[in-house]
């Protein structure tokens, strides 16, 4: 009776696609069964339950670590680290493969976020507390995984799996066929969801870069006169951050002007358009051009001549990313404001 082992392959995804293929190829060449994130949506808590159930049933756990930490859970750790911790907790034999610090690696596949870099360093230290192997390229990784798996299977044989027709009757074969079809459908669905999510994240990051790379000059007056108004220069990222919270429902041009004035000059500003209405209109036009705001669809009195604006779906995603970064880095709403002023 030929025994096959189920091997869980854990890593970040988009930066290690080729490396994962090599590891999966190595597992298949040995005649075993690879299981990995391709079958699941790690950003979904319900899917995490399925992942945990898979780890409960696997025989060996292979971890690949490079230079990205990956998306994080509500607990503040990456899904890869969560999988690793769970496998250790369950007593599954863990085979760790960490990229050599001297290995050439594209800059685009490095962790960019400072908080993520710190968490990645901490995670690597945790992994290195066990017996691990270093690798420099996907070919070397393929060979080291094959050798390590053979050694681990010999030294620590697990329960494993056998062909259904060797162990049980045709009912089990039929059930396995059905489950295989369900797995294929699930894999296709989760791959589509992952692709959509990555496209959304790319759009959010691109929009944040545009906001951060463009600045606007404006005055904030304290009285009805503009003579003693204070001049400011702020990035569109700051301007969006100042006004976005009150645009979740809706806000007027005047309300946006007051939100920005409050952020840069505290409460000491003229209440009736502390920033010129034409300047505010330009700021709102900039945000609308980036698909961050749109006219509100709520109904108002026919006598109400104000223009009302609200965040788009993209605007809410960009605001969410701003707030997430500030919370992760322990910043308050104004701790990283970039502005200059002159009277």
Number of helices: 11
Q: CATH homologous superfamily name of the largest domain?
A: Toll/interleukin-1 receptor homology (TIR) domain
Order of helices and strands: EHEHEHEHEHHHEEHEHHEEHE
- Give the low-pLDDT segments: 334-339
CATH architecture of the largest domain: 3-Layer(aba) Sandwich
Mean pLDDT across residues: 88
Which value, in Å, is the CA radius of gyration? 27 Å
What would the CATH topology of the largest domain be? Rossmann fold
Total beta strands = 11
Strand order in the largest sheet? 2-1-3-4-5
CATH class of the largest domain: Alpha Beta
Strand content: 5-15%
- Fraction in helix: 40-55%
Shape: elongated
Distance between the termini: 85 Å
Give the biggest beta sheet.
5 strands, parallel
Q: In the residues, how many domains can be counted? A: 3
Structural class: alpha/beta
